[in-house]
Design brief:
The structure is a single chain. With 273 residues, the chain is α/β, with parallel strands linked by helices. Helix content is 54%, strand content 14%. The longest helix is centred in the middle third of the chain and has 20 residues. The relative contact order is 0.14.
């Protein structure tokens, strides 16, 4: 039986298929994904949210990619979901159902992507962006990063990635504390409790993450991918808890608490500006 031909996806093809993300190849075998919406601290609008959910399937099939590095554009990783998308989810059932499916796909597709993923976390990391940052196989955070889940502040349950990964990374007591109180974490505190792999000075985040991605790309592909697959069985075991949390989160978008919380956040931003 002849070997299957290798599948190579050109960088331009990623750009065409996922136009709301930015791609680069900083090193051979390393695909860089840049979350870019700098006017809104790299918040994920409806189009970017869809691309973040589906890009991992393409990467999984691309034999030229041996490691992935994901970062935000500029000084921030991502400020979470775009408020206009949240408003659409509140007012339109079709949007709510679509984004619910995308939120599930984002988590499971990233978990099931065979390529190792390294995240370079700087500035603000919230919501959907934080899901990518923490579900990465190795997360590197700057000392002054601001990590906050943000769900309960918005009036919805901590669904998204929170229930599937926080208790495993930092333990149930710390997960309860930060997910219920929405108290922000610095990079140093996140490393101390085990939420991220390493904390480094802010200007060293990207070179450190890139160096790790490059090292992973040069190791045995099967050894790296199969180790990731086995380790992520811990996350797959938590799948039912994640599914329940996500359902409860999206149910919350139809309740009055979310509308009141969204208005309160907007008023605070107006007062601060």
């Amino acid at each position: 039986m002849s070997a299957q031909p290798a599948t190579t996806i050109p960088l331009q093809t990623y750009t065409e298929r996922f136009p709301h993300l930015t791609f680069a190849q900083p090193e051979p075998g390393v695909l860089e994904i840049i979350i870019s919406n700098p006017k809104h601290l790299n918040a994920a609008d409806a189009h970017m949210h869809r691309d973040l959910a589906t890009v991992w399937r393409e990467i999984d099939l691309d034999d030229s990619v041996r490691a992935v590095l994901v970062r935000g554009d500029g000084d921030h990783f991502s400020s979470g979901g775009d408020f206009s998308l949240i408003e659409q989810m509140i007012s339109d059932e079709a949007t709510l159902i679509r984004v619910w499916k995308e939120a599930s796909d984002l988590v499971y597709n990233l978990i099931n992507c065979s390529k190792p993923v390294v995240s370079a976390i700087r500035g603000t990391a919230v919501g959907a962006g934080l899901a990518v940052a923490l579900l990465a196989d190795i997360s590197i955070a700057g000392r002054d990063v601001k990590i906050i889940d943000g769900h309960t502040r918005l009036g919805v349950a901590a669904g998204d990635h929170s229930v599937i990964i926080w208790p495993l990374l930092c333990g149930l007591a710390k997960a309860r504390y930060y997910l219920l109180t929405n108290e922000p974490l610095t990079g140093e505190e996140a490393e101390r409790i085990g939420l991220v792999a390493r904390c480094v000075p802010n200007d060293e985040v990207y070179p450190t993450a890139l160096g790790i991605a490059q090292k992973l790309s040069q190791n045995s592909p099967t050894a790296i991918r199969w180790t990731k697959h086995a380790l992520n069985n811990w996350l797959r075991l938590a799948g039912p808890s994640f599914d329940a949390s996500l359902a409860l989160e999206f149910l919350g978008f139809k309740l009055s608490d979310t509308k009141a919380a969204l208005e309160a956040i907007r008023n605070r931003k107006k007062s601060a500006s």
